[in-house]
Amino acid sequence: MSRTTVIMGAVALLSVCASPSGNAAAQSAAAPEEIYILRSIREYREPTTGWCSSGKTGFESFATDAERFFSFWSVRSRPADGRVIEAKDARVAELRGCFGPAGEPARQNFYAEITLSSMSFHGNGECLAMKVDFPEAGLFPVRCQLVLDGLPAPYVGGLLTTNTITSKAGFGDETNPPGYTQASIATIRLWKSR
After folding, report:
1. What distance in Å separates the CA atoms of residue 6 and residue 160, rounded to the nearest whole number?
2. pLDDT tens per residue, range 31-61
3. Collapsing DSSP states into helix, strand and coil, what is residue 22?
4. What residues contact 178, with CB distance under 8 A and at least 6 apart?
5. Which residue of 98, 139, 141, 143 could cross-link 111, Cys pair, CB 3.0 to 4.6 Å?
6. Which of 66, 64, 72 has the alpha carbon at shortest distance from 43?
7. Would you give the distance in Å from CA 26 to the centre of its chain?
8. Closest CA to 156 of 32, 15, 38
């Protein structure tokens, strides 16, 4: 047996061992759902006049600070219990949003355009302030949700939800008071047609 034949055989064996089984690969390709857990960080961008128009968002935006920009970062968690051990691993997505009043002070309308990998899509929903000055003075826990639309085929839609904490620091990943993860831990669920 030649040396080339042995090397080719070893490469073929390693390829088979490293590849998922036919069943696992087929299940992964056929899965109707993708789930992303990401961290958002608000970054300063100069607003664009008219970008948050009611024709686009479906609601009247705030007179000031309506347009907001967020970077999204992958997170790493501990497999044993799911605890996040790295909340800012790699920048993987962006969200450009518009916010406006929704009839009660704690609630805001929310529209966003999101770029994730090579996909772009949008969503409409709302944010709700859960408490004021909690877990300490200057912090505001908020939850947001968006129903996602405008995804490329084979996606049919999705949902974005956030567990958010805002602070006296308007931008960046450092809270004021310090020690918390600003701004959001977001879950994006994307659904495909079968």
Report:
1. 51
2. 899 999 999 999 999 999 999 999 999 999 9
3. helix
4. none
5. 98
6. 72
7. 26
8. 32
Please report, as a single letter, which amino acid is at residue 44.
Y
Sign of CA dihedral 143, 144, 145, 151: negative
Sign of CA dihedral 97, 186, 45, 137: positive
Question: Tokens in use for 92?
Answer: 């993987």
> Which position has the token pair 């639309």?
149
Task: Measure the CA–CA gap between 177 and 154, rounded to whole angstroms.
Answer: 44
Q: What are the tokens at 157?
A: 């839609």
Which two tokens mark 48? 């664009």
List of residues 6+ apart from 116 with CB closer than 8 A: 36, 72, 92, 93, 188
Residues 6+ apart with CB under 8 A from 134: 140, 141
Burial class (CB in 10 A: 0-12, 13-18, 19+), 139: buried
